[in-house]
Specification:
Blueprint: H1 8-39, H2 45-67, H3 74-148, H4 155-186, E1 195-198, H5 199-217, E2 220-225, E3 230-233, H6 235-252, E4 258-266, E5 269-275, H7 312-322, E6 326-332, E7 335-343
Length: about 350
């Protein structure tokens, strides 16, 4: 034992003699702890930190017991008691801190995944803009140059070119409006003026507005009302949701097909269901239909008329979520079904 009245050199000599015994008893504990940590490398962070705190405590206690020859006296008993008390304080702290760090790590990992998903969505949106906006602009430029150079001089041809330029301009304006609406939704700048809105009126107005498009495509649009639910929402945004879903269904339904719009109540929610005849969505794509600028395969786009910029469903999803609702999609019958669930007023 090292006495308190020994010189510093004598203390160092005693420590040098004690070191091999301390290592002999403490080193196996450290090695065993390292193996335990290796086995827990895929476990929870709280467990790992707890083991990491317990290892030096057990190694210290084992080394003290080994050096003392397991001869318990008042000093050794006090040392063991102190180690146990320290363990009672440190181990719970390690568990609490480990869980806090684990929650923070999970949050940071999820934040990084969301950031990567947002970056991928931005890249996809930029690629969409560079393609879809460039096409009508190129057509407008070509037709305007033809008119300016006198290549087209017949009145009927000039009128046709002017009509096509007007159509492409309208299409461009719609794309820009969709981009502006989507930017408001994603930036959280959307402000809704809430009121009691009968869904049956919204659906009937939307179907009436979409009837000319459906007639040109020879698609029947039918509406069924199992109830007359009233929701608390913004009338223009609710109309935008239904319009996007119905126009999407008409565009993807082949001629002589049917688009069915159903209104009902499911529990405490109002339900709008839109069925189309698109032929179904592949299982590997059904989870992406609400992504920005996503377009399906040819099974879902039988007519490549250039209509639609791939933003309608993304906007509908954002507007539904702004109303504290949810939107779902699944294959149903000859096509797919989009369901909008909104809280009842």
């Amino acid at each position: 034992m090292i006495e308190s009245d020994e010189s510093f050199g004598a203390m160092l000599t005693h420590a040098w003699h004690i070191l091999p015994f301390a290592l002999l008893f403490a080193l196996p504990v450290a090695v065993l702890g390292g193996l335990v940590l290796y086995r827990l490398r895929h476990g929870s962070l709280a467990t790992t930190l707890t083991v990491l705190v317990v290892i030096p405590l057990v190694a210290t206690l084992t080394g003290v017991l080994g050096v003392s020859g397991f001869m318990f006296n008042s000093t050794l008993t006090t040392m063991v008691l102190v180690c146990l008390l320290v363990a009672l304080v440190v181990v719970p702290c390690a568990i609490v801190f480990g869980r806090a760090i684990a929650r923070r790590s999970v949050w940071e990992r999820e934040a990084r995944e969301r950031e990567r998903a947002a970056e991928a969505s931005r890249r996809e949106l930029v690629a969409w803009i560079s393609h879809d906006l460039r096409s009508p602009l190129a057509g407008i430029r070509a037709m305007a140059e033809a008119l300016a150079d006198g290549v087209v001089s017949e009145p009927a041809e000039v009128a046709g070119y002017a009509q096509r330029i007007g159509g492409e301009s309208t299409r461009l304006s719609g794309m820009v409006d969709d981009l502006f609406e989507l930017s408001r939704i994603t930036a959280g700048a959307l402000r809704l003026t809430m009121s009691a809105v009968p869904l049956q009126d919204v659906v009937s107005d939307t179907i009436a507005a979409q009837s000319p498009v459906a007639h040109r495509k020879r698609v029947r649009v039918e509406a069924y009302a199992q109830a007359s639910p009233v929701v608390s929402g913004s009338d223009p945004e609710l109309a935008r949701i239904v319009r996007n879903l119905v126009s999407n269904a008409i565009r993807h339904t082949p001629p002589d097909g049917t688009v069915a719009v159903q209104i009902g109540v499911a529990g405490t929610e109002a339900l709008i269901a839109v069925d189309d005849g698109c032929g179904g969505i592949p299982e590997d794509e059904i989870g992406r239909v609400f992504d920005v600028a996503f377009r399906g395969t040819r099974a879902r786009t039988p007519e490549r008329d250039g209509a639609g910029g791939g933003l309608g469903l993304a906007i509908a999803k954002g507007l539904v979520e702004a109303h504290k609702g949810r939107i779902l999609v699944r294959n149903h019958g000859p096509g797919c079904r989009f369901e909008v669930h909104l809280p009842l007023a």
